[in-house]
Every structure is written in C-alpha cells, then in structure tokens.
Amino acid sequence: MRSSRCHPLLVPALLSALVILAARPAEAEGDGADLDISAQVARLYEDASVASGQYEAGRQDAEAQRGRAERAERLLVQERQEIAVLHEDLGRIVRAQYRQGGGLPYTAQILFAKDPDGLMRGQHAVRRADLAVAGAVEKSRRAEGRLAVDEAKARSEWLVLEKRTGELAAVKRTIEAKLDEARSALQSRADASVAAGSCRGAVRLDQPPTALTQAWVAPVETYELSAGFGSGGEHWAHRHTGQDFAVPIGTPVRAAGAGRVVKVSCGGAFGIEVVVEHPGGYYTQYAHLAAVAVDQGQRVSTGEWIGQSGTSGNSTGPHLHFEVRVTPETGSAIDPVPWLAGHGVVV
Fold this sequence. Notes:
Elements: H1 14-23, H2 37-99, H3 106-112, H4 116-196, E1 224-225, E2 243-246, E3 252-254, E4 259-266, E5 272-278, E6 282-292, E7 299-300, E8 305-309, E9 320-325, E10 333-334, H5 336-342
Antiparallel strand pairs: 1-2, 2-9, 3-8, 4-5, 4-7, 5-6, 6-8, 6-9, 9-10
C-alpha cells in the first residue's frame, strides 16, 4: 500500500487529540441531522486518517518505551550479578582477615609482636583489610541503591506502556466503528441511487489543503492495486478496461488532472461514475463510486476531490475503477498504468 500524505505528529498531545476525535459525533444527530452522509464519511475518513497516524506515533513511542524497559531489566540482572560477586568478595576478605590475625584487637597484636617491624606490618595489614571491607560494603550499598531505582523505573515504564497502548487501541477502535457505520449508510444510499438510475446530486466536500505542483496524480492517495487492464474474469464481458485501486468505501477520489466533467451517471455496470475531459484529447473515468462531489460541466483541478469510492454497480468489493480513454465513451480505453507513468505518476 502506498501513501503520499504525511501527518505531523505531536506525541505529547496524542491522547487528548484522539479523545476529541473519538468523542466527535457522527454529524447525523441533533443540529447536524440534515448534513449529507457523504460529508459525514469524508469527515470521519479524515478523523480516521489522523487517528491512524497518531496511533502509529504512539505505537512507535510505546516500542521505544518497551526497549528502555527491557534495557532496564537487563541492567537489573547485571547489577544483581555484580552484587553477588561483591558479597563473595566480602566473604573472602573477612576470611582472609581472620586468618591473618585481623580479628585480634590491636592490644593483643602488640603483645604478640616479636619486633617493631612485625608490629607495623601487622597493623598495616589490618588497616588495609579494614579499608577493603569498608570499600566493598559501600560499593555494595551503592549498587543496591541503583538497583532499587532501576527496578522502580522499569515498573513505571511498563505501566505507562500498557496504559497508553490500551487507550490508543480503544480510541482507534471507536473511530473505526463510527466510520464503518457511516460507510455502510453511504453505500446503501449509493445502491438505492443506482437501482433508481438517478443520482442524488453533488455533495460539496471540504477540499483538503493541497499544494500540488505536478500536473497529474494518482486518482486515490492510499491504495492497493487489484485487477489490471486487459485481465480476464467472469465479471467482464471481454477484458478488463481499466485499473482497479482497492480502497475502502468512502475514500476520497480525486481528479487525476485538470479538466472538465463531461459525464455523471448513476446506473449500469459501472454504478455511479464520473468522466473528466482533459486537454490533449484524453478522458479519465472514475467508476463504482458511492457518491459524487461534482456536477456535469464543472471544471476541476488536479487533485480535487470529485467523489468517494464505493462498490456500486457490477462490483465484487470496494474499489475505484479507473480508466483512461480517447473518447468519453466505453470501448476507447487504453492501459492507464503506462499512460500515468508517461505523465510522471508511478502507481
């Protein structure tokens, strides 16, 4: 799947932003009851897009936390091993001190000393052993202190990780559930329009802010390619006449290039469709839509939303059927993939 849209992500505002999105009503209740379902889906689609981006940012942040917690756990194991070694060293020092007379009081060492040099050597050995014991005890105490801090840090990070992951997943599920419900309603209305052979009229979608510099774009931003031009199948009388882009119902469909809408139709095998005439004698068709956002005769610019994908007409599942033609009518299609590539668009 490919995507050309990137959403700037601010992790500190992550959960608050997602909670606002999840709490936003489906616009079909209260004072928004007269809002067309197409606009509802478009807004929820954008909400879901933002939520997915925020969820991905949160997931990456959680993975980073997981890595830090795992490193802390590994540090705990290492420090436990070091403390065990320190305890062994303390035992050896005490045993050595005892064997060398370090356990005797200084008065006894003076009485039993055979000469001043022996006395000095004995006292020096005792002081050295005492310093070693004191140093080892202090080192052990510091290591145990670090161990306690690291244990608390590891527990805290795991708790934060689990809580954030759960909250993000819950919010994402809520938004997706709302979107699925709205998509189902949108497709039901599309099917009714196709059955009646009459379009409901254009829905004026809020166009996304774009700064396109290229003359041509893919008809959808995020997609998977499915049936290609010329492929065979029981759903086509002869051969497939376009390129299918597998996308969910309600996905915004955009004009591949600037031109004029020459056809808006809501019946037949293509279901709801739009045909746009472009300079140079080429036409593009967008079929199996769930809704249209343009009127016949309207001029459109590159990347402008002209409808929403669906599964109307002779369709086995949600997708956009896209054609490039040399006339506005069926039967004049050419392979759109190399044609798009020739115009700087690789799909």
